[in-house]
Records
---
Amino acid sequence: MDESALLAHIYERSAGLAGAVRVGPGDDCAVVRVAGGTDLLLTTDQLVEGRHYEPGTDVGRVGRKAVARCLSDIAAMGGSPVACLAAATVRAGFNEADGLFDAMRAAASSFGCPLVGGDIAIARGPTVLTVSAVGAPHPGRGPVLRADARPGDLVCVTGAIGGAVASGRHLDLTPRLAEAAWLCDELGARLGAMIDVSDGLGCDAGRVAAASGVRVVIDAAAVPLGVGATDVRAAIAEGEDYELLFTCRGAPPPSAPTGAPITVVGRVESGAGCVMTLADGSIVDIAGAGWDHTG
Amino acid sequence: MDESALLAHIYERSAGLAGAVRVGPGDDCAVVRVAGGTDLLLTTDQLVEGRHYEPGTDVGRVGRKAVARCLSDIAAMGGSPVACLAAATVRAGFNEADGLFDAMRAAASSFGCPLVGGDIAIARGPTVLTVSAVGAPHPGRGPVLRADARPGDLVCVTGAIGGAVASGRHLDLTPRLAEAAWLCDELGARLGAMIDVSDGLGCDAGRVAAASGVRVVIDAAAVPLGVGATDVRAAIAEGEDYELLFTCRGAPPPSAPTGAPITVVGRVESGAGCVMTLADGSIVDIAGAGWDHTG
């Protein structure tokens, strides 16, 4: 084999791997097929001091949240975490980096997702933690996408919505990995689309509607409000709930084995957009009701 | 199956995956075994404005470097890239985020490594790009570790060392993926340890010595200096070369099919540490000669 043929062979080997993107950007995770036909879930997520947590927050809780919210994206695909990586940008003189990485390592381990690598850099500015995770799709159901809602599906959420930021609960979230796996086991093909409610039930349900090419109608009276939440219109726009929102063909079970309640909050119809019906019969557009992490 | 047994089953499934860490933190990439016995290389890397590039640098070059230096870690393990993720933290009002992501996408694609997901957040502070990559180990050689140098090995580098920052070449680096794959093909079991020279030949060779439990002796006169480098002691401490440093049982080929020269710069001995012999016969400790990204 001459040199150019050899290099062509090397590049071809890479190109073959590169061709295996099954789901690209736009869902909670990408899905990439690797050698042996194994599918991987891949996701990355940033936690920024002053945006996602207050300066001065205990680094143990900060590190845990950074990992947990990344793994919430694995849960949103119905997957199980395999391993994660963490990168931190901190100020010069910041003396809690060890504590941060210890917290990320412990949290990752507690979620069955070993922290296998990291990077640290110094910069003027807030602390930024970037966690990237690899997961495995559910072996039976496969990746659960945002795009699989169909007219006739019921729209369901685990847990409760709203009050997570005001109460501080957002710092102690547990990603709904067990519930997601159990939903895949239990519902199989009856499970339609799924997403985690990170930015607000309104905009996250709107993402499901847009990805699936359907209309989602939420019933305000049905939304289970979290402790500290009083107004449903505020609750669906707050975000940081990290609950699962999924669509289901037929009635879902009333709760998961973990004890997490499951509530039907709406339905999927033909059409487009995401609206909420209020007690007075009026209908409001909620597809934009959420928290813009970049805003 | 009752609820607790079901949950135990779900957690056990995750725990089984979690047990598959073959190489944890401390090498250029972690190695994780997933379903089907497939091994993955995993790495994450940050590029910080003001530390790894000057403010005002063209975003096309910045985005490319962010991807390229992450994939240099895949090359350092002898692997081929499979897919990558990118996260960016930028200032409010920063209007080149699209350009940054376009550049990262194009660079990733050019290296055979599709960018499959991303995240963007706003923060007061410099732009921080975090790229995480998944790779596949060389199918024949397997992951090439820092820990596999043995007394008697020759120490070799691709390309040239020094001058990368002063010349601006560091912004246009091409990760040595083709050369790394070819070294695995060509040398097989004769290839010992490998690392990429990102922080300085001195400290990176020192890392190989420490990981392998050996002593590395570099011959100053043998180090091929890059354009713009004049002093070998400065050159081995500059970093940002992104060349491969590897150990070889027997003589290496003089160059790779890509044209990259391969130079024997030293040898591996029993003992510990990393030193350089100078023209006057003196010996200097160089294990600390490098650029501390966190300093």
---
Amino acid sequence: MTDPVYTYEVLKDFALSIFKKIGCPADQAALATEVLLQADLRGIDSHGIARLSGYVRLWNKKRVNSTPGIRVVHESPSTAVLDGDQGLGLVVAPRAMEIAIQKAQQVGTGWVAVKNSNHFGIAGYHAMMALKHDMIGMAMTNASPLVAPTFSVERLLGTNPIAVAIPAATQPPFVADFATTTAANGKLEILQRKNLQAPIGWVQTKAGGPSTDPDETKSGGALIPLGSDREHGSHKGYCLGAWVDIFSAVLSGANYGPWVPPFVAFLDPPSDPVGEGIGHFFGAMRIDAFRPAEEFKTHMDNWISRFRAAKTVAGEERVLIPGDPEREMSAQRMQQGIPLNPKVVEDLKALGVTFNLAF
Amino acid sequence: MTDPVYTYEVLKDFALSIFKKIGCPADQAALATEVLLQADLRGIDSHGIARLSGYVRLWNKKRVNSTPGIRVVHESPSTAVLDGDQGLGLVVAPRAMEIAIQKAQQVGTGWVAVKNSNHFGIAGYHAMMALKHDMIGMAMTNASPLVAPTFSVERLLGTNPIAVAIPAATQPPFVADFATTTAANGKLEILQRKNLQAPIGWVQTKAGGPSTDPDETKSGGALIPLGSDREHGSHKGYCLGAWVDIFSAVLSGANYGPWVPPFVAFLDPPSDPVGEGIGHFFGAMRIDAFRPAEEFKTHMDNWISRFRAAKTVAGEERVLIPGDPEREMSAQRMQQGIPLNPKVVEDLKALGVTFNLAF
């Protein structure tokens, strides 16, 4: 049985209506919808419209503020700290990235740490905002603790993604966007829905032992940092996740480590917060603060062409450039529609009923 | 048989004399020695005095300039590009980091890309320069192509390390410093010297197949990006290595990807360079450009204490904080001396003979 397919426009209209129903101003509802749907288009299904009802449940619990007063609380010529006022990360993050871009226009680079925010969708969207300004963009965020550092059985970090977007001239941009774990949580959700096992090295049991159960985190187990085990460098994945946590939350004044509030509304945030909400970190670097932009982009074309032309191992068609799979998926889904898992469809229908909207 | 042990002072005096013999001005010889020996102290033996004769061979080939005119060739309030004039990276990199720190003092953050440089020792040394200024420090560099991107049999990237140093209050600083491959090349060198096999996932054969031979790169094989294989996220390690390459070299105007000159003097640099020398990238962020430094550092103490106190898997004593092993090794070796592999000792003795210096 294949999943039902919806056009981008249908999903967009529905998400927009929902965001308006929970009280988002029209411009913010449009922005939140745009960010959310980019995940579906780019094939990162776990971060798209599948999360819509989750955002609504957080709003129900008054953990998401649909009319936030987002404001800069600290700044220098190249930096700022933004208080997201418990807004949707989908709205707070683009605002932060805009400020980073403005700072970069003025002094070459801009760096913005954000506190008091919520889940911001896909990191890649925000990093890519820099591209049209001939800037390199970076975005990272911390997230609910599901990941055990190397040697730990406790879950102290989120999947803490990093995105880096780099412009080229005639080639499409380089866009890396990845969780700092061996596998993103969304990949485990796919296995759960299909009743499949996970490879060894993605999750560990409550006691820290090996497991292939994609539901392991529901019984006290944990995701594993990129590297899978100590011998294969999981301490490096742990370093990456820790770096993202500290930049996103210790610099900004958000909650960090095990204090990050859970995304799911049925779990309460820790009663002893060390900061406000979740945290993000953004950067924008003007290319011509380093060298002429055209010169740089011509060399990026050369870099990309050379890597794309690399000789492959037998059975593999090509070496990918970061961003290739998502860009190709986006073109395909814009034309052919976006497949949704039946459970997601049920969830959206229920959401429609609640708000008296047809899905 | 245990390796012979030398005091820090003995190795330091010898390295200092050698750097002077090849014509480094006294202050630069002292700095190069300091950076080089920190690798030995911190237990990163592959990047320390074991490389001394390699630097000398590059100097012999006129690929290292011992009296470089290091200069800023482009800048903005928060950025600079530095031309290392073929100097030792051990000298060029600290100069770049000083500029990053000065920029951060003025506008909150400073970012310096470097071209026309050579191997810079351990990335962690340079990142840690920021700590005493209550700044976060970052350092990365590209390196000779030994790493095959996911699905590639060609070696297009170096082990391209990243270091991030973050100050705390009463706790020692957080210092992450790691190659973006599953295993650093130095770990393979150790296995080679001991005639041991490597775990699957560290290297691949010339055809891209699995291998346990630590000498695989000598017969056309390659190191593998962090993650080991596609299923365990090697494409993320590839993204990291690519990011380091682009920031270090495409931003600065150095050679990138397969055009990076080899560290070993017996291999000539590519005849069709795309830039000058190898490239580095450095960053410094003033903590109080985001929030008061004392407040931040107190939270870092809390972060570190919480992670250090995490419950461990059976058989493991503790969860490490990035920087713990190197700091402990450094204290031990400063007191008990630095063991050198007999092959390294032979190499240093030969170097001494060449320059009429006793080792």
